[in-house]
Amino acid sequence: MKKEIHPEYYPEARVVCGCGNTFVTGATKPMIKTDICSACHPFFTGEQRIVDTAGQVERYMRRLEKREEMETVVAPEPPEEKKGTTGGKRGAKAAAGERGKQKKKAKE
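User: That's the sequence. What structure does it adopt?
Assistant: Structure tokens below.
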């Protein structure tokens, strides 16, 4: 290891969470403040709760509401299907075959 290039190591660094939980660990800073820890994180507690620190959930919900609003205002009509016309050579042959079947039924 090279000397004088590594940060100072604090074996008794205190970690303080936003929920009030504190614990001691080793770190390069004497005190670490965090928003969430294993005592309050939904994965470890089993709670169904959304962890949102940057307001991204609210932004997503606003976007979702705008999209639903736009869909109700401008509802596109489904395209009409054309009978007997499908693309390519096989489509033309299939359409001709269908017409032949219709003629046979008409004769009967």
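Residues 88-107 form the longest helix (20 residues).
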